[in-house]
Amino acid sequence: MIAYFSNLATLVAIFGILAVTLNFMVGFAGIFSVAHAVFFGLGAYAGAQIALTVTPNPFLACAVAAGIAGVLSLCLALPALRVRGEYFVAASLGLQMVALTLFSEVKSLTGGIGGLTNIPRPQVFDVEVGVLPLALLALGVLLWAIHAMANGSFGRTLKAIRDAESAAEALGKPVAVAKALAVAFACAGAGVAGALFALHMSFVNVESFTLDQSVLVMAMVIVGGTGTLFGPLVGAVLLLSLPSALSFLTFIPPTEVGSVQQIIYGLAMTLLMVFRPAGLLGDQNKGKSHA
Amino acid sequence: MTQLANNAPLTCEGLARSFGGVKAVQGVSLALPAGAVTALVGPNGAGKTTVFNLITGNLKADEGTAQIRGRPIIGLKPWQVARLGVARSFQDLRLFTQMNVRDNVLAATERGAWFWQGGDRRARLAAAEAAMEATGLTALAEARAVDLAYAERKFLSMARILAAGADIWLLDEPASGLDLSSRLRFGQLLRDARARGVAICLIEHNLDVVVDLADRIAFLDRGLVLAEGAPREIMTDPKLAAIYFGDRSHEAAA
Prior knowledge:
The structure holds 2 protein chains of 2 kinds.
Chain A: H1 2-28, H2 36-53, H3 58-72, H4 74-82, H5 85-105, H6 107-110, E1 123-124, E2 127-128, H7 131-150, H8 153-163, H9 165-170, H10 175-201, H11 211-224, H12 231-246, H13 257-275, H14 284-287
Antiparallel strand pairs in A: 1-2
Helix pairs in contact in A: 1-7, 1-10, 1-11, 1-12, 2-3, 2-5, 2-10, 3-10, 4-5, 4-10, 7-8, 7-10, 8-10, 11-12
Chain B: H1 2-6, E1 10-19, E2 22-32, E3 36-41, H2 48-56, E4 63-68, E5 71-72, H3 78-83, E6 86-88, H4 101-109, H5 121-134, H6 150-164, E7 168-172, H7 180-195, E8 199-203, H8 207-213, E9 216-221, E10 224-229, H9 231-235, H10 238-244, H11 249-253
Parallel strand pairs in B: 3-8, 3-9, 6-7, 7-8
Antiparallel strand pairs in B: 1-2, 1-4, 4-5, 9-10
């Protein structure tokens, strides 16, 4: 039972990192990416390779994962500089598909469909450390950084660009630089989550980095409340623990658990969007349609 | 013109731009002198806003040149033009709607796009407070822009321009839809800025506002400057009045 909850808590922390970093892009910069799992994946493969071939030190794995995901996020930033809204969603969807194909084909780096196995447990100075404290540490640092940026000039710049890009530019702000930085920061965070995921599972393959995963993380952000600090974290807790909680309901026949779970899950999401359109922690004046 | 141009931080020469077959602006030359209000007047579709967009780099000019204090600006990006001291307002305001009034104005004082801002943070805060004070928005500092009343939104748009610290202002119908008392307050803002030496260019349809505030008028029609001069000369020209009020019979006769 303890192992079960420890596993769940670790996954919540890792997906919490994904959700709060995606929220930084969506909620502050208005960049709706459905390719967050790509950078999660890049970080996971990078972290796994470091652990497999260089050192089991998790800090190096996270740093390299953040670096690779952050730099390659320019692939995502470039379309974000040119198109907005639904057009950008389409562009990120394309990136997600290309990346998934590369993940399963570049076998020397990713192990192909089979993935990378036997990733060693993380060690600091030859002492084995759990992934949960590392993930909580990373989540805490990222939340602090996002909080600081949200209340500072960089957050203001991003929100200004989100609300009226041309006006922000007319005030002397180089919009492209700010957007690229926001994307790089968020994707580097996703990279860290990926490295921790690889170390936690000791196995990674392409199944974890699909469009479904990107959509799940986006759902966490929206359910919790875009543009809020803790909303996406609440979303991550709910969306990961709700399915497991439902499986404890004994009156559902075991053979039907799967489909009942999906129905309850889907209904809850729909009702939430009807009654709290800005998410659980969001400002409810914001999400409503005014038409 | 040359006499004015010596004192003009912004000049443009022969600006032209077509959209498909439509010549929106064809050879507009202007000089905006420091410490003066130049009004761009003309019927809808005359090319007034297009002239602003060509100057600020939001549109690429097909032909022509423009300079700020002698430095060519055609081909620069909007943020680069802004950093040379140009602040503009938009007809549709383009406020940062989900941000509060203070953040809207503070954002106007911050040009850096990195994780931090260089320069004096206290000076920026002071500039933002002063801009809110001057536009009567201090009491609304915490209100979201989207929740403001119409006139307050227009003043917030002006507050951003004040806070930006620019010395060339391009204002696109800043007084439209304002009631008399708001218009008087707006007029005072402009007079104060003029007294500080700001070069102001104003697109305005309300001729009372134009006569009240403008030192010079440039009359645009179909992308051409038809006349330029003191308000009294322009406003009393029957031909221009006919064009402005939509009577083009004299053209058919000619």
